[in-house]
Write a structure and sequence with these properties.
May have a photoreceptor function. One of its GO terms (biological process) is photoreactive repair. Residues 3-144 form the Photolyase/cryptochrome alpha/beta domain. The chain contains 20 helices and 5 strands. Among the domains are: 4-137 and 189-215, HUPs (Rossmann fold, 3-Layer(aba) Sandwich); 332-439, Orthogonal Bundle (DNA Cyclobutane Dipyrimidine Photolyase, subunit A, domain 3), CATH 1.10.579. The termini are far apart. The chain has a 5-stranded parallel beta sheet. By secondary structure, it is an alpha/beta fold. The structure holds flavin-adenine dinucleotide.
């Protein structure tokens, strides 16, 4: 009996470095028969505020997803493969697709987050042959040197284990998607079907509203595999990788850091592709501490990926992966002032304004505003993480929630809570206040609280 294959795209919106989809094509080519469909599932409910008062996805990230899908659908149609975009409840849509295409083999990239994995736990996929693997990380099932539950307790221990392996060899094999040897569908018809499903995406009111909102922002990134590869090649044609370690903490400078996080979270590129380019750059220009440090940061991303896969729901627990609840609470007024850039700190306000306006802030800016949230505002860290999730153009569940836990002292940091001295950091990274002046928030800077701890109004005693 011929097999009917269904591949679900998610945060792997590209056509190279996709072993699961490549395997499906190989099986069809080897057997000489079988049908292949691809789909992308999107639930507009994810645009509405949910847990901790925040949405699961930002309008800015949605815009980049739409751009990525547009390119992907066209490239796949030319390869004889349909990309069907399904809007609505993901579990129901997956069930419908399985019936519609009489699917016998289901494939997808294994998600690290527990919410994302739920889809495949809930969907009625019994009786199907399921093929999945980790396609958004450096390691996959076959190369990961330990069982997920044996992930080392700290990043340093993890790094030492993996750096003992021949990483440059492991991650540098180029993986191109094979061509279907017998194309049963005409590219033009597939393109027309894809365009129709893409149109329904844009016509969904919640989605078009979010896209309108995104168009009003100052987004410096675009989605799509082609542009992502172009950006990566361009970065490695500069001298920036050789000074990365000395510039990566700058607050607002395009080439100071790689800006790969956006393409990585959409899956427009695989971290393996980046690793491969670093190795090529090192061979050509010589490696140094900075080129090593890009790999070092990719290993942080990798660590948080497996950390999310290991700890599942604990990624969102108040006490994180520790047994101890932090001594913080939820203060709605402080939370609102942090979001609006109306705290007593101009520096923090500027960061929050940049985040709201562009969907992107540097790593140091993320650390500072998260530290302020946890240490000065004393708010439950999960509200901060959820707000980042609803705004960041590069939101990645493992990196975001893992970093927040780390800063809040409930994650993988053996040293406990991290507190940055905001004034000192401002003097270090914005001594002439150019960043503050650029991103200064229009909101009025206000005292943190308008009532005291017994709910009495705090009177401003100044004349
Ligand atoms: C509170 C907080 C929340 C964060 N949320 C996210 C998020 O949602 N998505 C996300 O991709 N990164 C997140 N990060 C990590 C980091 O800030 C961003 O990856 C980085 O700023 C993106 O810019 P870049 O690509 O130029 O990074 P570069 O400095 O050029 O780093 C290269 C790559 O290494 C990885 N990387 C760098 N730093 C980290 C880190 N601390 N943790 C994990 N991976 C890292 C990223 O994939 C990045 O693209 C967060 C950090 C903090 C402190």
């Amino acid at each position: 009996m011929a097999s009917n294959y269904l591949y679900i795209f998610d945060n792997d919106l590209r056509t190279s470095y996709l072993p699961v989809l490549s395997q499906f094509i190989k099986e069809i080519n080897d057997s000489g028969h079988g049908e292949l469909q691809c789909a992308y599932l999107f639930d507009p409910e994810d645009l509405k505020p949910k847990n901790f008062q925040s949405a699961l996805i930002s309008p800015a990230k949605l815009k980049l997803i739409c751009e990525s899908l547009k390119e992907l659908g066209q490239v796949l149609a030319n390869k004889g493969i349909l990309l069907d975009i399904c809007i609505g409840n993901k579990s129901a849509n997956l069930g419908n697709l399985i019936k519609k295409y009489n699917v016998t083999c289901l494939g997808y990239s294994s998600p690290a987050g527990s919410y994302e994995s739920e889809l495949y736990r809930n969907a009625e996929i019994e009786g199907l042959t399921v093929h999945n693997d980790f396609q958004t990380s450096l390691f996959d099932k076959a190369t990961l040197p330990f069982a997920i539950n044996d992930l080392p307790a700290t990043f340093t221990r993890f790094r030492k284990v993996v750096e003992a392996l021949p990483l440059d060899e492991l991650f540098t094999h180029y993986q191109k998607l094979p061509e279907l040897s017998h194309k049963t569908n005409c590219a033009m018809q597939l393109l027309a079907k894809f365009e129709a499903s893409n149109l329904s995406l844009n016509k969904t009111p919640a989605i078009s509203y979010a896209l309108d909102t995104a168009n009003k922002l100052k987004i410096e990134f675009s989605g799509g595999e082609g542009l992502a590869v172009h950006h990566m090649n361009n970065y490695f044609s500069l001298t920036s990788p050789s000074v990365y370690k000395t510039t990566r903490n700058f607050l607002d400078n395009w080439t100071a850091s790689t800006k790969f996080s956006v393409a990585l979270c959409l899956g427009n590129i695989s971290p393996k592709q980046i690793w491969r380019e670093i190795v090529k750059y090192e061979l050509k220009n010589g490696g140094n501490e900075s080129t090593y440090w890009i790999k070092f940061e990719l290993l942080w991303r990798e660590y948080f990926h497996w950390y999310a896969a290991k700890y599942n729901e604990k990624l969102f627990h108040f006490s994180g992966i520790t047994q101890q609840k932090p001594l913080s609470s939820f203060y709605p007024e402080r939370f609102r002032k942090w979001i609006d850039g109306a705290t007593p700190s101009h520096f923090i306000n500027a960061i929050m304004n940049q985040l709201k306006t562009t969907g992107y802030i540097s790593n140091r800016a993320r650390q500072l505003t998260a530290s302020y949230f946890v240490n000065e505002l004393n708010i439950d860290w999960r509200y901060g993480a959820a707000y980042f999730q609803s705004q960041l153009i590069d939101h990645d569940v493992a990196s975001n929630w893992g970093n927040w836990q780390y800063l809040a002292g409930v994650g993988c940091d053996p040293r406990g809570k991290r507190k940055f001295n905001i004034e000192k950091q401002q003097n270090l990274y914005d001594p002439n206040m150019s960043y503050i002046n650029k991103w200064i928030s229009s909101a009025t800077t206000l005292p943190l609280d308008s009532v005291d701890y017994v709910d009495w109004p705090i009177v401003n005693e100044e004349p």
